[in-house]
């Protein structure tokens, strides 16, 4: 084959391998029991094909079926953040040194979050600030999508139609504090602004006394795979607002570039 000829289409075996990896990453991101119907719907594959993949993975010791007929990844393959392998494992390996450098640079807590199937944002890596007064975000913390900086990154940079499907599925968004923005039209304007500036800012909308800035982590095809977030006590954020915003923005771009070339 000449070097300038197009590559042949992917074979069925490659497609099956991709589906298996998608399945493992799905089960690893949201550590719980999954119904067959849920998995097939999330991966957009027939239930019969999904069942065959699950049975194969179960035979090889990757997943297990519980008495209530739900499927989950074996605990030996998990840590507190989820599956230790796959694209998420690579992302964590790339991002952790950047999180440490960012936290040290601005003396704030830096975390990495991914979107779960619920959907909500789950923290999969965290570097806590060493400052005496700080905002701590433990590993595994979950945030609502609509009123967290990371969640709004997923609304802004998610797949086409994700934001509208989210609003349709959650017609009455709760208020966590008096500052929570829960009006869909106002949120749409915020999402458009986040797309333009490529970072999101949240001031006490979820927790009084806490402010955060987040930036999207994009894969090769421009798909958001995670969000980088810095959490601060509110006075500290306002004292260093310009510096923190710039640092988060730059670090998000750098992690995205590293992931895209990995």
UniProtKB/TrEMBL annotation:
Q: Which UniProt keywords are given for this protein, alphabetically ordered?
A: DNA-binding, Transcription, Transcription regulation
Protein name stated in the entry: Transcriptional regulator (IclR family) protein
Annotated HTH iclR-type domain residues: 14-75
Q: Pfam family of this protein, just one?
A: HTH_IclR
GO BP, one annotated term: negative regulation of DNA-templated transcription
- Which InterPro entries would you find in this protein's record? GAF-like_dom_sf, HTH_MetabolicPath_Reg, Tscrpt_reg_IclR_C, Tscrpt_reg_IclR_N, WH-like_DNA-bd_sf, WH_DNA-bd_sf
Give yes or no: UniProt keyword DNA-binding.
yes
PANTHER family, per the entry: HELIX-TURN-HELIX TRANSCRIPTIONAL REGULATOR, ICLR FAMILY (PTHR30136), HTH-TYPE TRANSCRIPTIONAL REPRESSOR ALLR (PTHR30136:SF24)
* This protein's record includes keyword DNA-binding: yes
């Amino acid at each position: 084959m000449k070097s300038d000829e197009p590559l042949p289409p992917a074979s069925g075996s490659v497609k099956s391998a991709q589906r298996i990896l998608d399945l493992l990453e799905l089960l690893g991101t949201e550590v719980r029991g999954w119904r067959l119907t849920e998995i097939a719907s999330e991966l957009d594959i027939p239930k019969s094909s999904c069942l065959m993949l699950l049975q194969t993975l179960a035979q090889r010791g990757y997943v297990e079926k519980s008495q209530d007929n739900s499927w989950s990844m074996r605990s030996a393959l998990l840590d507190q953040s989820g599956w230790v392998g796959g694209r998420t494992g690579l992302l964590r390996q790339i991002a952790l040194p950047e999180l440490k450098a960012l936290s040290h640079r601005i003396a704030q807590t830096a975390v990495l979050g991914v979107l779960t199937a619920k959907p909500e944002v789950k923290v999969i890596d965290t570097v806590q600030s060493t400052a005496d007064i700080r905002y701590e975000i433990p590993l595994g913390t979950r945030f609502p999508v609509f009123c967290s900086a990371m969640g709004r990154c997923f609304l802004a940079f998610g797949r086409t139609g994700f934001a509208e499907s989210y609003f349709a599925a959650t017609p009455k968004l709760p208020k966590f504090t008096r500052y929570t923005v829960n009006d869909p039209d106002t949120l749409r304007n915020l999402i458009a602004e986040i797309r333009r500036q490529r970072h999101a800012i949240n001031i006490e909308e979820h927790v009084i006394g806490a402010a955060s800035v987040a930036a999207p982590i994009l894969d090769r095809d421009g798909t958001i795979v995670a969000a980088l977030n810095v959490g601060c006590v509110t006075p500290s954020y306002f004292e260093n607002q310009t510096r923190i915003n710039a640092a988060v923005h730059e670090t998000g771009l750098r992690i995205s570039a590293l992931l895209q070339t990995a």
